[in-house]
Amino acid sequence: MYAFLTGPMAWIAFTIFFVGLIWRGIWYVRGLDWRLDRVTYGQNVKYGIRGAVRSIARWLIPYGTHSWRYYSGYTALVFIFHIGLLVVPIFLLAHNLLLAERWGVRLPALSDAMADTLTVAAIVAAVLILLRRIALPEVRIITRFYDILLLLIAVTPLWTGFLAYHQVGPYQFWLIAHILAGEILLMAIPLTKLSHFLLFFLSRAQLGMDFGIKRGGMKSKGMEW
Amino acid sequence: MPEGTLCNKTPVDTVEQLQALLADKSGKQYYEEMTQLDVDAPALWATIQKTFKSRMRTWLEICSHCGMCADSCFFYLANDRDPTQVPSYKIQATLGEIVHRKGRVDNAFMRDVMDTAWSKCTCCNRCGLYCPFGIDTGVMFSYLRGLCFSQGFVPWEMKIGSGMHRIYRAQMDVTSEDWVETCSWMCEEAEEEWPGLEFPVDKPDADIIYTVNAREVKHYPEDLADAAVLFHIAGENWTVPSKGWEETSLAMFAGDWAGCKQQVEEVYAAMDRLKPKRMVVTECGHAYRATVIEGPYWAGLKSGKTPIESFHYVEWVAEALRTGKLKIDPAKKIKEPVTYQDSCNYIRNGGLRECAREIMSYIAEDFREMKPCGEHNFCCGGGGGLNGIGRYRPQRNVGLKVKRDQILATGAKLVVTPCHNCWDAIRDLEEHFKIGIRWSFLKPLLLKMVIVPEHLRPEE
C-alpha cells in the first residue's frame, strides 16, 4: 500500500495536479473576450497590468482591503488556514527529507515547533470556519454539502499528518491516511472549486484589469480595494 | 398563450407598439400576459453558450459561499439581514440555476428571476469590492437582465424605456426638433438676465460638446439654462449636437444590448460630425456609465474609449474651479454641514472620487463624508432603473433605509447629488421618511456662489 501510494499514485496525483491546473489556466485565458467582458485586454496594457497587480497584491495582504478589515475575525481564520495549508507541506522538514532522498533537492525547513504551531492553528481555523458556516444564516443559506466536503478534503492532510508525526495511535495507519489525503487534495485542486488555487489569481487579475482599464483606472490612482 | 400583444420577446421598434404599451396603465395587461409567456429554452441556452464565457463561469463555479458579499449589499442590510438577499444566493438561485438546468426553466421561474434581477439588485457593483475572488455579482445581474430581456421577461417601464431609445434615441419621447427648440427657448429665457448668452447647436470644432439627459429637456429645462450660463461665465467654446445629444440608456437598465449600441452610436456620430475637442455630460451617473464606460464596447471600438475624450460634469467643474475659469465668492460658500452622494456609476465604476472632493473643497465650509464613502459608498437605493419601476416601489423604499441612515449620521441637512438617479432616490427618501433634508445638483449651487466677471454682469 505504502509503495503504491508513494509510487504510481503519487505520480498520478501530481500529474493531475499540474496538468489540470495548466488546463484550467489555458481554458480561463482563452475564454476571455474583450467584447463580451467589455475590457480591452490587449489595449491600454499599462493600466491593465497596474490594475491586475494592485488587485492581487492588496488581497494577498492580511487586512489589506476594506473587506478583509470589515470581516476582521473571519479574515484571521482565512489567512491562518491558508498559511498552514500552503507553508507547512512545502517547508516541513519531513517532506524535505523525502524530497532530498528522491530528487536531491532541499528547501529551507521549518522548525518542529513552528510546523506544529502552524498546523494546529490551521486545523483550529478550519473548525471555526465550519462552525461559522453553520452558525451564520447568511453563510448557511449558500452552504452546500460540497462546500463542507471540500473543507474536509483540504484540512485532512493536516490533522492526519500531525497524528502520524507525533505517533498518536497507529503510526502506519495515520501515515498512509496522510499520504492518501494529500494525494486526494492534490487531485481535487484542479478538479473542484479548490481550483481557486490558481483561479484566485486569474479572476482577481481580470477584475483588476476591468477597473484598471475601463472602470476608472485611467482617471484615478487605482481602485481602493 | 406564448406571445402576448404587449408582453412578448419582440423589442419595441415602432411608435404604435410604444403607444399600445403606454396605454396599458401601470402595465396591468402587460404583466397578465407575462404569466402566459413561454420560455424559449433552446434559444436561451444557445445565447448562454455563446456569451457566458470563462470569466462568469469561473465566478459562478469558484464562489466559495463564504458570505463576505452579504454586508456589502444595501438590500441585505435594509431587509434586516434577510439571507435571501445575500448577493451570492441571489445570483446562484437565478443565473446559477438557469445555467445548471441548461436553460430549461419555466415561466414562473423566469418571473421570479425578473423580480430578483430588477428589485433585489441595482447593479451598483459594491459586492465586487468585497469578494476575495473578485466576483462582481452586479456584472452578472446585468448579464442576467439581458437574458430576461431576450425572453420578454422585463418590467413594463424597462420595455418602454428600451423602446424609447430605439425610436427616439432618447429615454423619453423627445425628438431632435423638441430638443433644439427647448435649447433656443432656454437661451431666450436666460438671455434677459445674461446678455450675450449663447446656446450654440451643431457648432463645429467647439472645445466642448455638451450632452444631456432627456428628462432635463422634458421636465427640467432650467438645468439646460444653468449649464449654458455656467459655460458662459467660464468662457467656454461649447456646443450641443442636434442629434446624438442624449447620453442616458434605459436600454442598459433593460438589458437591451442592441438598443444600447444604437443609442451610443448616435452620440459617437455627433462627435465625428462636429469634431469637438472633448465631450462633457450633464450630472447623470448612468449616462456617463453607458456612453463613456460601457458604450465603446457596445459599439465595438477596439480602444475601449469614446471617439473623443469624454468627461463627467464633475470633472469639468473640478477643472473649472482649479484653473479659475469659475471662481467662488468665499462669502457665499455653503456654511451649513453638507454631504455628497457618491454615485456608483461615476465614482465606484468611474474613478472620479477625487473630483468630487476637490469640488467640495471649493464650495463648502463644512463638508462631511458619508460612511462609507467614495468607491465604497452605498447605492442611493434607486439605481439600475429601480426608481422608475412601479412594480417594485415597496422594495425600493425599504432599500432607501441604508442611505437615510448614512445621511442622518453625517448630521448634514443638505446632500449634493450630481446624478439624476441619486437625486430622485434622495428626493423620494425625504418624501417617504421625512428626515428634513434638502438635495441639489451642482449647477444651481454653483450659480449662487460663482463670481461673475465684470464684462458679463447684467446691466442694472
Give structural attributes:
heterodimer, A: 225 residues, mainly alpha, 12 helices, globular, B: Fumarate Reductase Iron-sulfur Protein, Chain B, domain 2, Rossmann fold, four-stranded parallel beta sheet
Write structural notes for this entry.
- The complex is a heterodimer of chains A (225) and B (460).
- With 225 residues, chain A is mainly alpha-helical.
- In chain A, 77% of the residues lie in helices and 0% in strands.
- Chain A is built from twelve helices and no strands.
- In chain A, α4 crosses α12 and α10 packs antiparallel against α11.
- The longest helix of chain A has 24 residues.
- Chain A is globular and about 60 Å long.
- In chain B, strands 2-1-3-4 form a four-stranded parallel beta sheet.
- Chain B folds into three domains: 116 residues, Fumarate Reductase Iron-sulfur Protein, Chain B, domain 2, CATH 1.10.1060; 155 residues, no CATH class; 124 residues, Rossmann fold, CATH 3.40.50.
- Chain B is an alpha/beta fold and 460 residues long.
- In chain B, β7, α20 and β8 form a beta-alpha-beta unit.
- At the A-B interface, α2, α3, α5, α9 and α12 of A face α4, α6 and α15 of B.
